[in-house]
Amino acid sequence: MDVVLHLAAESHVDRSIDFPATFVQTNVVGTLTLLEVALEHWKNGGEGLREGFRFLHVSTDEVYGSLKLSDPAFEETTPYRPSSPYSASKAASDHLVRSFQHSYGLPVLVTNCSNNYGPYQFPEKLIPLMILRALEGGELPIYGEGANIRDWLYVEDHVSALWKVAQEGRVGETYNIGGGAERTNLEVVDLICEILREERPGRDYAGLKRFVTDRPGHDFRYAINSEKIRRELGWQPSVSFDQGLRRTVRWYLRNEAWWQELS
After folding, report:
1. Could you list the residue range(s) of the whole structural domain that residue 153 is in?
2. Is 86 in the active site?
3. Number of structural domains, the chain?
4. Could you tell me which residues are beta bridge partners of residue 58?
5. Catalytic residue flag (residue 194)
6. Of these residues, 61, 76, 157, 182, which one is catalytic?
7. Residue 235's closest CA among 186, 151, 179, 155?
8. pLDDT given for residue 263 in this prediction
9. 49, 186, 208, 248: least surrounded by Cβ within 10 Å?
10. Where residue 76 sits, what CATH number does that domain have?
11. What digits encode the pLDDT tens for the residues 129-165?
């Protein structure tokens, strides 16, 4: 089997609001470029390659829009309602991928995942940003009242799901991948502070929290129903949010040289 896994993307919502053209260039035009190259390779690769080839496009739950507390979690059939330049660019790329199957027969798969976290995550994202600011004694900025909710997925669980989809997923299908770990942003920051207090005592980490003006168009809640991938492919997350967050905090504590180069 030959698989193209397309994970490349601009993914930070705040930056997409400031620089939407960059996100369209990377997420839309970049995806189109990969699709065109993959299509040419697939068409000219001979019968053996054509049968075993897959183009797996990795997307986000943000294409579905925002949920209220009482709303059911996103399913694969949930209509797209992107609400930021980032999510709009990912929605466009999803549609492009599906169009290449419909128009040219390219064997594609699409996954939509919830918020990832874990080692090596770039410090602009919530969890590493809070960890590193706390370690440096800086303020921990929390949008609004910290009530916005995300479903968190440990990166190794995401990788195992992608491999399952690549090997066993049905061509043309979409699979939602979620960690089943909905938490408010405030709950996430509080747990980071608690873990840091245990791992590196001597500072009032919780005292660094600051509530700041909410960002424009901040989606309230994302939640993934991952029943399809569990039922069809036998995948389920193996790392709880508490376990994964502790692993993540410890990784950043032990790898200061990596993240200090980025600051």
Report:
1. 2-260
2. yes
3. 1
4. 111
5. no
6. 61
7. 179
8. 65
9. 49
10. 3.40.50.720
11. 999 999 999 999 999 999 999 999 999 999 999 999 9
